[in-house]
Amino acid sequence: MEQMNRTKSLSRTLDLAYIAVGAALIAVCSWISIPMTVPFTLQTFAVFFMLTLLGGKRGTASIVVYILLGAAGVPVFAQFSSGLGVLTGSTGGYIIGFLFTGLIYWAAERFLGDKLWVRIAALVLGLAACYAFGTGWFIKVYTDANGAVALNTVLGWCVYPFIIPDVVKMGLAVTVASRVAPFLNTGRKTASA
After folding, report:
1. Helix, strand or coil for residue 26?
2. Are 19 and 53 in contact (CB under 8 A)?
């Protein structure tokens, strides 16, 4: 019995450590900006990577910790920003949308298993949910401040330029996570097909 309690305690400690590292990696990647016609960060890469590497439960917990740190004033968001003002601002919906990505991934993994096709499908659906929530949020905040704006205009500002970079980041995240997983004691199997 005592051995079982020690094992559970070690498992909880490892979970907390992985969640903390996941939140830290999302923060660091949000600070890395890639200069393009429309600059983008590696934030979504980190979200995809942590979900794929740690699984839905711990990956989603990493996202929650990341959002809470930013809300509390720790400069974890893009350009070292933080605070509720960022989350309630026009692009805050996309940050909150990462939570939907995590929840969709977690649900898919739980009900369909830990297979490569499930991982990819869950990330694609999660990204679509993030885009949808973030775009709706952006329209609401922008309309309140500046007047009506067309959906296609907002998609042109906030979604279309990011689709290809996000798909590339998704592919990289899945590939890197499958290469790293065997070297970490995450308690997850390496799924292939």
Report:
1. helix
2. no
User: Strand, helix or coil at 41?
Assistant: strand
Stated pTM of the model: 0.91
The answer to whether 177 touches 49, Cβ cutoff 8 Å, is yes
| Domain 2-183 in CATH 1.10.1760.20 | yes
C-beta of residue 119 within 8 angstroms of C-beta of residue 56? no
Tokens of 157: 């500002």
- C-beta separation of 138 from 146 below 8 A: no
The domain spans of the chain are 2-183
Write out the H or E segment, with its range, that includes residue 49: helix 43-54
pLDDT digits (tens, 9 = 90+) for 85-119: 999 999 999 999 999 999 999 999 999 999 999 99
Chain length of the chain: 193
